[in-house]
Design goal:
The complex is a heterodimer of chains A (about 325) and B (about 525). By secondary structure, chain A is mostly helical. Chain A is built from 15 helices and no strands. Chain A folds into two domains: about 1-75, no CATH class; about 85-310, MetI-like fold. Chain B has helices spanning about 40-45, 70-75, 100-110, 115-130, 150-160, 180-195, 205-210, 230-235, 240-250, 305-315, 340-345, 365-370, 380-390, 405-420, 435-455, 465-470, 490-495, 500-505, 515, and strands spanning about 1-10, 15-25, 25-30, 55-60, 65, 85, 165-170, 200-205, 215-220, 225-230, 265-275, 280-290, 295-300, 320-325, 330, 345-350, 425-430, 455-460, 475-480, 480-485. In chain B, helix 3 (about 100-110) packs across helix 4 (about 115-130), helix 3 (about 100-110) packs parallel to helix 5 (about 150-160) and helix 5 (about 150-160) packs parallel to helix 6. The chains are: A mainly alpha (about 325), B alpha/beta (about 525).
């Protein structure tokens, strides 16, 4: 088990380092000089050269990479070209919205998908299965911004239970949570639909295994077999999807953030791209990659927790 | 006591069982017949575990209660408590994510409402009883930490934990090697005696039944054609189908081929090691062997002795750490160092024909695959038609998919695929082990004929001496990566010198001479 952990951690560190090289190089390679962008098209060549030197853009590439990485390790992501403020607090602020939102959406997705997937698998081919999978189809097909608008109409405009948008900040935790509920639901529903489908097909495949027949021969009912023997065995593909969904939810929530006027990571990245604020883009991408790698590591740990055969690997 | 009365069963309107009547008394009853004759369906009908689409009629009486008429909630408390069952595939029959202790304890928890601790204590006793004693086999082991035979013991421990009246064992040893088979059969015999249990032993192997069962029932196409005390049934063989099974069981193909001069394959000092969690495993420990042109050599040993590793190195799939392999004087090895035309001179047939064919390809494409070693000849379609005819199939089968064939037919296809580029050597790794006796006899006949027609050499790998007996010129016995004995089949089997060979020969199930000789 310890060796498994250690191996996964080494892989994690190596991936992070490789990712940082790629992110750095890509931003370096794209056409468009941040200095000339900052000064606009009518800038004097001398001013441009001075700014380039000031920003360290004339140093050799490896040196700039080392400097960039060293600063990041100390928590310094650089200064935004557009806003002239440090990038690290900017990202931190946005994460305060995006991270809780992603976690809430994911938990909600799991809570919804688990009973639906189990129910559909237990009633395979019958009306309950058809209904559950029909709903899942719908959940996948409906765009989440449409769902979001619907939720706003019903719960904010008509019922007035929850705010229609905006984020009050964490100084009032209750208000902050309330403002995240509707976006979390809008994000979670399509994900729950995907999860339920994966869980159902994985369960059905597992229910065809020999050890399920053994369990039935022991005197377990179909339901007991499903819960005690099939569910855990069917979890591996579900965990894989779960990991990918979290990464998507963290940065892919931009449309939902726009619908609900949330100051999340997705919106910040989008703005930074349109403004060619490369430092912000670079830093945000690095943070996201780190998050994805960390989640992958957690998923690996979950695999090992579920499957004893992996603990020896 | 369990009585089957006029049990009939159909699946999707197709009759599977027709009027099966059978009394199961304490002791061992053997149920024999070829694959697809309805043996397993009979067992599942007793367990109340028939597929949803099955329609059954008749009665299955346990102490006067008709199990077939019971609702699922009424049947469930009996399953595992009064009737238990073990299955063929021990490797997949246990939940891989649950410890063996919890899996045995589960039976006690659901039927007797024991708490986990009490159930685990009883599970401990149960595992001790089936030969998995405490210090070496803690309850916390997972199935993947056990061998096939040990897993089958766990399955037996679960099935007998509550001392059921009836235990059904459906081909319980077919997937195990002969020495393990002998031990599992001994265990079952002892348990039946100690508990006064009824055992329904389902198998296609007459020799297993002959050595175990008090009574036997012979099943053909969903009907019991003959039943009675084992010895009487086997001696008289009054039904033609029983005679057929008997003939197939002792079948030795007629061999016309003679080995030609000169060595074809030479293995010298072959060493192959695997790295494992606790150091290294020497799978091949200085193996020497020679196969002559047109010769058929048997390689026999228990699972894990290195047979399949040897096969893989001979086929040039795995590297050796020391030693050499030469085919017709040219060096054999993995990767591109080995020229294609040399590779084309060796082909292989494996145990599981279904797993070795792509289910999405048609037969003609499957069979044409080895042509990538030689280049497709212009008449390749005719060659495929000819190869199909040669293995006893029809040229029109070329447009079918693999799932449309039976197990025996699939193995014929695997042989056709191996033959298509006219190799000099075919490695047959447990190629007939998954087949029932009658199909096995047919495939062995086919192999003998093909060998004579094409001057083929065979390396015939099996865990079972009796399989290679009739089809080889010479047998090599392997143990722990070494060849420990070598000689002509009959002398190796009848007068084994090495103790490992003796153990293998002892474990070979045989029909007692007294039963065989009775017919004129």
């Amino acid at each position: 088990m310890l060796r498994y952990l250690l191996r996964r951690m080494i892989v994690m560190g190596a991936s992070l380092l490789a990712a940082s090289v790629v992110i750095f190089s890509v931003v370096e390679l794209v056409p468009g000089d941040p200095a000339s962008f900052m000064l606009g098209t009518g800038a004097q060549p001398e001013t441009l050269a001075a700014l380039r030197q000031q920003m360290g853009l004339d140093d050799p590439l490896p040196l700039r990479y080392a400097g960039w990485l060293g600063a990041i390790l100390q928590g310094d992501f650089g200064t935004s070209f557009t806003y002239k403020t440090p990038v690290a607090p900017m990202i931190g602020e946005r994460l305060q919205v995006s991270l809780p939102l992603a976690v809430m959406a994911l938990v909600l997705a799991v809570v919804l998908a688990l009973p639906v997937g189990l129910h559909a698998a237990a009633r395979r081919g019958r009306a309950g299965d058809g209904l559950a999978m029909g709903a899942a189809h719908l959940g996948i097909a409906l765009p989440n911004f449409w769902l979001a608008m619907l939720l706003v109409l019903v719960f904010a405009v008509h019922l007035r239970w929850l705010p229609a948008g905006g984020f009050p900040g964490w100084s009032d935790p209750l208000a902050a949570l309330r403002s995240l509920i509707l976006p979390a639901i809008a994000l979670a529903l399509p994900q729950a639909a995907i999860l339920a489908r994966v869980l159902r097909s994985s369960l059905i495949e597992t229910m065809g295994q020999d050890y399920i027949r053994t369990a039935r021969a022991k005197g377990l009912s179909r339901g007991q077999t499903l819960r005690r023997h099939a569910l855990r065995n069917a979890l591996i593909p579900v965990l894989t999807i779960l990991g990918m969904q979290f990464s998507f939810l963290l940065a892919g929530a931009i449309i939902i953030e726009n619908v609900f006027y949330l100051p999340g990571l997705g919106r910040m990245i989008f703005q930074a791209i349109t403004q060619r604020d490369l430092i912000v883009v670079q830093s945000a991408v690095l943070v996201l990659v780190a998050a994805v790698i960390a989640v992958t590591f957690l998923v690996d740990l979950a695999y090992a927790a579920v499957d004893p055969r992996l603990r020896r690997a | 006591m369990i009585r089957l009365k006029d049990l009939s069963l159909s699946l999707d309107g197709r009759p599977v069982l027709e009027g099966v009547s059978l009394d199961l008394e304490p002791g061992i009853t053997g149920l024999v017949g070829e694959s697809g004759s309805g043996k397993s369906m009979t067992a599942l009908a007793i367990m109340g575990l028939l597929p949803d689409r099955a329609v059954a009629s008749g009665r299955v009486l346990l102490d006067g209660t008709d199990l077939l008429a019971l609702s699922e909630p009424k049947m469930r408390p009996l399953r595992g408590k009064r009737v238990g069952m073990i299955f063929q595939e021990p490797m997949t029959a246990l939940n891989p994510l649950m410890t063996i202790g919890d899996q045995v304890a589960e039976v006690l928890r659901i039927h007797e409402g024991l708490d986990r601790r009490a159930a685990l204590a009883r599970a401990r006793e149960g595992l001790d009883r089936v030969g998995l004693p405490a210090p070496r086999f803690p309850l916390t082991l997972y199935p993947h930490e056990l061998s096939g035979g040990q897993r089958q013991r766990v399955a037996i421990a679960m099935a007998i934990a509550l001392r059921p009246d009836l235990l059904i064992a459906d081909e319980p040893t077919t997937a195990l090697d002969v020495t393990t088979q002998a031990r599992i059969l001994d265990l079952l015999r002892d348990l039946v005696r100690q508990d006064g249990m009824t055992l329904l032993l389902i198998t296609h192997d007459l020799a297993v039944v002959a050595g175990m069962a008090d009574r036997v029932a012979v099943m053909q196409a969903g009907r019991i054609v003959e039943s009675g005390p084992t010895e009487a049934v086997f001696r008289a063989r009054s039904h033609p189908y029983t005679r057929q099974l008997f003939t197939a069981s002792g079948h030795r193909p007629t061999r016309r081929s003679r080995p030609q001069k000169g060595p074809l394959l030479q293995v010298t000092g072959a060493v192959r090691e695997y790295r494992t969690a606790d150091g290294g495993l020497r799978a091949l420990d200085g193996v020497n062997l020679t196969i002559g042109r047109g010769e058929s050599v048997g390689l026999v040993g228990e699972s894990g002795c290195g047979k399949s590793t040897l096969a893989r190195t001979i086929l040039g799939l795995d590297p050796l750490q020391a030693g050499q392999i030469h085919l017709e004087g040219q060096s054999v090895g993995p990767g591109h160092r080995m020229p294609r035309d040399l590779r084309a001179r060796m082909q292989a047939v494996f145990q599981d024909p279904f797993g070795s064919f792509d289910p999405r390809w048609r037969v003609d494409r499957l069979l044409a695959e080895p042509f990538h070693l030689t280049g497709s000849p212009p008449d390749w379609r005719d060659r495929i038609g000819a190869a199909l005819a040669e293995v006893g199939l029809h040229p029109t089968d070329a447009r079918k998919y693999i799932h449309e064939f039976s197990g025996g037919q699939r193995q014929r296809l695997a042989i056709a695929r191996a033959l298509i580029i006219r190799p000099s050597l075919i490695v047959l790794d447990e190629a007939v082990s998954a087949l029932d006796m009658q199909v096995r006899a047919q495939v062995l006949d086919l192999l003998a004929r093909l060998q004579a027609d094409h001057g083929l050499a065979y390396l015939f790998i099996s865990h079972d001496l009796s399989v290679v007996q009739g089809i080889t010129d010479r047998i090599l016995v392997m143990q722990a990566g070494r060849i420990v004995e070598e000689g002509p089949p009959d002398s190796v089997i009848d007068a084994p010198r090495h103790e490992h060979t003796q153990a293998l020969a002892r474990a070979m199930p045989r029909i007692p001479d007294g039963m065989v000789a009775a017919l004129p």
